[in-house]
Write a structure and sequence with these properties.
Number of strands: 11
Order of helices and strands: HHHEEHEEHEEHEEEHHEHE
Distance between the termini: 41 Å
Radius of gyration: 20 Å
Structural class: alpha/beta
Shape: globular
Helix content: 10-25%
Strand content: 5-15%
Length: 311
Amino acid sequence: MSESKTFSLPVIGEVNRRTAIKAGAATLGLAAWAVAIKPWFEWTGELDTSDFLQKHYRELAPEELQVILNRLTDEARKETGKPVVVKDHKPIPGVSFAYALNLSICIGCRRCVEACHVENNHDRPSHQSYIRVFEMDKGGINFEKGDATYDHPVPAKDKYYMPVQCQQCENPPCVSACPIEATWQESDGIVVVDYNWCIGCRYCEAACPYHARRFNWSKPEVPPAEVNPNQSYLSNRIRPQGVIEKCTFCLHRTREGKLPACLEACPTGARVFGNVLDPDSEIRWVLDNKRVFVLKEELGTKPRFYYFFDK
């Protein structure tokens, strides 16, 4: 059964670019809307940025971006009462990130799921996370029979566990599906979303073969005491209602030389992360010495997320 959701109409005088374009999507239909909105993005040189919310992230001058970061920081501090800082973390030159997961030692405890939930300021009522863990029958990979909602002690007999999250594809279908370039791949391989530019059409969600994107039907609710104050514009800041969000390999951590929160939470060491351009990195050792595989290889998405077994 399809999920039915409604949005309240904007108050007169409070209509911004996003609400106007969403209204167009609802009335024209998606195919016609994709063509109809094109002129909106050919006018940006003639309109003040405050009228159109802001420029695209990649078109912002450093001083313009800093104004936005300051505003987001002030708003978050007022709302949470915590010393939130929203930064802009740029890719590190000479770095290309990849992830690997040892299915032989993952026990399905879901501590990675919880760590993602907390680190990325996810909505608490829905217990949102970017990671799903499938309980699978040993002997094959069959997602139709895989169970992502198991509720019993783990690991269970004759089962193995496969966490699935954004694959950070080298050829990401989600990026090509976005009609307004609100999502793109950065030089270190991480696919990001400009939450201030996203209009919530969900094209990218439909295009992703890994079910790795999430749509905010309502504004995420995070108790002030539980807010992670170390935030990034393209990563774990609290997202607005009506936009798509996704895993970013915790870029607010990894671009500072730290490890993803899900990896640090893993009690068995099943997760491996690092720079594949570094010949001495652990991730390179795994790729060079293990028989790794990727999900849905036949689609040509070229994931940067690898799986392997010890035996």
